[in-house]
Predict the structure of Alpha/beta hydrolase.
Amino acid sequence: MDSTFNPPAWLRNAHVQTLISSTPLRSWPLWWRTRRLQATAEDVVLHCGDGIRLHGLYNANPLPVRGLAILLHGWEGDAESSYQLSTAYTLHSTGFDVFRLHLRDHGPSHHLNPELYNSTRLQEVIDAIAEIQKIYPHEKCFLAGHSLGGNFALRVAAKAPDQGLQLDGVVAVCPVLDPWRTIKAIEQGSQVYHRYFVHRWKRSLRTKLGHFPELGYADSLLEMQTLGDMNDYFVPHHTQYEDARSYYEAYALTGDTLATLRVPSQLILSNDDPMIPSDDLQRIARPPALTIETTDYGGHCGFLMNWKLDGWIDRRLLQLFR
């Protein structure tokens, strides 16, 4: 399989790549193609210690199994996001068991924990993966994440040996490298992205409030118009950090975060990603276990190859996991 991503000219615009992935042009045909995968998925609640519970979807494979692939979605995405379904379908149809793990307060999991999601809650994701491996033991286990899920995947990989996790390979697709720069790129870039994340985050917070009204932020939420407004309220009130910048720096991949990485890991990023500045790659550690792959095109988690909107990343993941 050719590992070079070279889309036709009409698919080389970063915003076309980023936005079309989430439109009905791709989601409806993909939903139809993956309907059996969705119908046969097993709902799983994982117990992660300290009363924490996370949710996921597991698809076993009738074929001879190549291994288990655990997939992590991005911020305000879920297991039904187009990129998750497409990747899960490709891996499952070629012999992998697949587990699509929901981060806290994503998908149908808002009712499982009273405290709000935040991106520094790494230990519960590590514990969830350990529980998955305990319930569904496999000879080989792989981890892949998109966007913020890619950020989580690499942080998990860096801690995996010390946490007793068996990971044979990790792939991070367009991972958030410097969250502070990413949030600024969203706020100061196209208002389409900014409005999208404000809408999705508010919707999630309203869902959470329906289960835990004692969180008490309903009136404050009505007044918030921007991500900056929301960060200024939720970071000091619902995390251990005093301000938004401290919070975002706490889960950055820059600096020495990946210096101790020993699990074979692949970081894939497009140079035209409108949310992840590719020059942030210059500020991350380069241990021997980490391979960095950049493409000229692809936008943010797009990588659409042709008029059928097939995903190059699906094939690349399959190639790497094989």
Remarks:
- The two ends are 12 Å apart (CA to CA).
- The chain has one domain: 9-178+255-321.
- The domain at 9-178+255-321 is CATH 3.40.50.1820 (Rossmann fold).
